[in-house]
Design a protein that fits this description.
alpha/beta; QueA-like
Length: 365
């Protein structure tokens, strides 16, 4: 049982949170470098509310997730599809360059991260994967505006699919391979545009989804194109000084109706992944109530923030001092989250994108 320490003097909304509050020491051996042999073979840490205000911790397998769902629940999944967004090559001046596409703007234009010994200036041409040519048009903040030289019937997405690499996270210390094209992708992904996977969804198989449906649990999808910024560290000490990266989301009217119907019937909205949470809570925040929304979000969810839509959360384990562990701490309670992470380390759970999962029922403080 995980109990809230009795010497906590401030509520989450009153505390001036520091980045260091979300630090934990993780052995490198627990960072998953490969996916499990089967998607469903991951472990599942379950955090449940308990009568004494602590959280009960259970060590389960992902297949057990179905047993924690109720027939009138609604499972919300992010249907974004990871694109092969990483390209390697050279500048026309000869220097090596690495491009990571963050946002496809149209058939030829993208916003991208560009790594090289010296930042390329406007007008510089990039030769990528020996076959693709792109011109640097300028910068938008930390991102570069690139225009690809393509044939009339070609598109950036088609070119990336042909020449690009799957953008594995920086903590996976190997090159991508053909298996990653399928495994670093959910089985329900169908909206191309993400530079990173919504990793909580990687555990699902078609069989598991069929069993969830057979139990009477409804499903629906939202879209949030996960950006590479999800791996960017928080560089400021005070969370109030942190500026979130922006991502594109879509929540349509039919999903809003499903959510409202679920709530009316006493069911829970169960979000698969922090990206689904950010999509739903962003749409609520934009209107002060849940309405359809398509556009940008830079929502930053930290302890003390109220959740207006999501009742339960399935998520993977996140990086120390990251915005995602801050979101989970807001959802589950800070002390519970940090204690659960230590439990996961002690029990040798596998961490991060190809790692194990956690299922949490919301605990408002």
């Amino acid at each position: 049982m995980l109990n809230n320490p009795s010497n906590s003097q401030q509520s989450s909304s009153e505390k001036n949170w520091q980045r260091s509050d979300f630090y934990f020491d993780l052995p490198e051996s627990l960072i998953a470098q490969q996916p499990t042999a089967e998607r469903h073979a991951s472990r599942l840490l379950v955090l449940s509310p308990h009568i004494n205000q602590g959280f009960k911790v259970e060590d389960k397998q992902f297949n057990d997730f179905i047993g924690y769902l109720n027939p009138n629940d609604l499972l919300i999944m992010n249907d974004t599809r990871v694109i092969p967004a990483r390209l390697l090559g050279n500048k026309d001046t000869g220097g090596k360059v690495e491009v990571l596409v963050e946002r496809v703007l149209d058939k030829k234009m993208v916003l991208a991260h560009v790594r090289s010994s010296k930042s390329p200036k406007a007008g510089v041409e990039l030769i990528l994967e020996d076959s693709l040519y792109a011109t640097v048009l300028g910068r938008e903040g930390d991102l570069f505006l690139l225009e690809f030289k393509l044939l009339e019937d070609e598109t950036v997405l088609g070119a990336l699919d042909k020449y690009g690499h799957i953008p594995l996270p920086p903590y996976i210390e190997r090159h991508d391979n053909l298996d990653d094209r399928e495994r670093y992708q959910t089985v329900y992904a169908n909206k191309p545009g993400a530079a990173a996977a919504p990793t909580a969804g990687l555990h699902f198989t078609r069989d598991i989804l069929d069993k969830i449906s057979a139990k009477g649990v409804a499903t629906a999808t939202v879209t949030l194109h996960v950006g590479a910024g999800t791996f960017q560290p928080v560089r400021v000490d005070k969370l109030q000084d942190h500026k979130m990266h922006s991502e594109w989301i879509n929540l349509n009217d039919s999903v809003v109706r499903k959510i409202n119907e679920t709530k009316k019937n006493g069911g829970r909205v169960v979000a698969v992944g922090t990206t689904s949470v950010r999509c739903l809570e962003s749409a609520f925040a934009k209107h002060g109530e849940l309405q359809a929304y398509t556009g940008e979000t830079d929502i930053f969810i930290t302890p003390g923030v109220k959740f207006n839509v999501v009742d339960a959360l399935l998520t993977n384990f996140h990086l120390s001092e990251s915005t995602l562990i801050m979101l989970v701490s807001a959802f589950a309670g800070y002390d519970n989250t940090m204690a659960a992470y230590q439990h996961a380390i002690d029990q040798k759970y596998r961490f991060f994108s190809y790692g194990d999962a956690m299922f949490i029922t919301n605990k408002q403080e």
